[in-house]
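Database export, one record per block. Field names are fixed; values are copied verbatim from the stored entry.
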Amino acid sequence: MIVEVRARNFLSHADTGLELSEGVNVFVGPNGAGKSSVIDAITFALFGVHSRGRNANLVRRGSGWAEVSVTFTAGPDRYTVTRGIDRAGRLTHAELRRLGPDGPRLLAAGERRRVEAEAVSDQVGAILGMGFRELNLASIVRQGELLSILELRPKELKELINRLIGIEDLDRAYALGREVVDGFEERLRRDTGYSVGEIGRLEAELGELRRREAELSGALEGLRRREAELSGRLEGLRRELDAMEPLRAAALEAGRARAELVERVRRLRDESSRRLEELEAILREAPRRLEEASRAEEVRGELESVRAELERIGAELRAASGEAARAEEAESQARSLEADALRRRRRLGELESRIGELERRLAELGSPREPRELEALIAGLEAEVEGLRSEEGGLLRERGNLEELRRTGVCPTCGRSTEGMDVEGRLSALESRIREVEGRLREAREALAGAEEELRRAREAGELRDRLEELRGEAGELRGELEEIGRRLEELRGRAGELGRLRARIAELELRSRELRSRESSLEGELRRISGSAAWLEARGIAGPGDLERLRSEASALRELVGRIPPDPASAPLESLALDPETSAMAARAAELARAASGYDESRYAALKRDVDSASAELAGLVREIGRAEGELESVRRERARREEALRVLGRAKRYLDLFERIRDRVFHRDGELATGLRDWAMEALSDAATEHMRSFGMGISAVQLREGEDLEIVCYGQSGEMSVEQMSGGERVAVALALRFAMARLVGGSRADFVILDEPTANLDAEHRRRLVELVASMGGSAGPLRQIIVITHDREAFEESSVEIPAIFRFSRGPEGSSVERIA
């Protein structure tokens, strides 16, 4: 039940509070008084939903925010839900509280929460047992929407009944059962690697594994027999190979000794040949270098003389270059000052021309009044224009109302007839007044334009005078600067006259300096060659001609030694390699080792070695193959055992799952036996309640039934039998819709929403049927009826105020300058 509604800055309500009663509550008043806004206040507070488009449309014109609060009961508990928005329609706060003996306790705040149960709308839906759509169809009948229940498609009507009786709870249980099955099958898949539907594939895999196990066992026996045979052969080869090892060691040592001797002979030949070539080259080069080294003192003396002359010429050249640079600087400064003077004379001409233009423009502007005086005049004229425009707008609106009054004959605001009113006379007088105001408005606008133009000229004249003063000062400064530049130019031109003579002397000195530099470079190169020759002779121990004879004797001895060395030492006899004491000792040792290794056959040793290596590799491969076969066999056995266990588990699980699915389809499916029985009960209860209400209207319709065949349909019966809803009169259709709405409200009111709202329910009903409707509504509301509370919104005030039945609460709505106001009159 709705206990209280409070709306602040909401639609037409500035601050409205409604304390509703148990039983029937009637809202009366003209259009636009804010009656239907109460429905939007209730649905917006409960679910954040309304019929006014965007949320911003809910904010009262001229306000920056809006807030609604609804206090309601559900069972023994009382709750308050509050929702606020800003000017743009953005949610500023949403709160749901339970009102208990210890004070209010916050249940939810906000809407877009991470957990849906924390959102206000979700909590309200849980408390009422239905969301906005179900509440809107079963308990809220808006103006013009009463017949919507007759226009539902069969599928929509069936879904509505399902929701009213809580079939969605069965849907959730059905879905939860699917989750349980999926979870169980997922656990089976994790535990066994298979689902129940894969039992056939598992049996096929198990047969293949058993076949593979037998195949691997046979192959493993053959590999083990081959391993034993190969191990015996390898043992015999290794014994024969071990017997040849001592002779092989002696043969290898003899080979190494001869190889070392051959290598020593080759090094001796190479070293002697290189030294011989080196001595021959020295003996060819040394005479020339001895002669070149003897000229060192002569070249050093000439080089010192050349450098002294270069130093003297360099000093004279630097002095002349300094004087020339100063003369060039004076010449450059003179050119720069001439260019600067030219720019300043041009600027002076521009300033004098601009000063003349400004003086002429100042004369053209004349002598306007002071800006402050003109600004005050303009402010007064603007105020006058704004007042006349406002007056003109009011007169035009009044003319529009009178023209509408003349066209319709009915007052658009109060709805009264204009009979006897002099509309034409009032229009004629109003037209004269409009023309007078329009004339005064034109005159005021023309005066305002003139004053604005004069203010513009006054401001321009002030700016021109300031600019003239600035330009005249700048012209005076330029004339003084030009005089100073002239004096400076005369001084610089005198200093620049010596530049030609200085440049000729500098050229003469630079030519002599280049000649001396060239000679200096030549002497330095010759001195470097002399130093190189002296260093070359010193490095080779040659101080004079006596040292050359010593080197010729060394070269002769080396030629004799190189001639005795065999061309190929490796194939030469050992005695031919004894060339000096060292090589003679090495040759004797190599001959002794060769005698100790006689009888060794290297080819036989190599063949045995190859056979041992081949047999070892084959045996190692065989061992690895046996290991792989044993591992594969063990793996196959484990897989066979695992699949056998999985097959046993899946067989039991399939029996349980088949039983569970049969229970789930019969009990929890929305078209199962339980849901079908509940829906049949609900349709029978709705049909009985709707028939009871329909008979109280006395419209000749004896029964209203909900019938489910191929489709779910609404069937009515009258004196002539079955009646089509489409063929009924407007009043009959309204009565059937009301009967169904009341029946649905009774169905859901027993444990959840126990109120219904009717907006203009008496439309299309004659006086007698309106009276019966009032009696029916009064009998249904309150503790004695099936619904605890009924709210009726109507223009038909007399139907309720003049009724013989007692109406607990009647509220009169009206609209004034400050918005809607509400007064309880009963």
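Remark 1: The CA atoms of residues 222 and 626 lie 10 Å apart.
Remark 2: The chain has 18 helices and 15 strands.
End of record.
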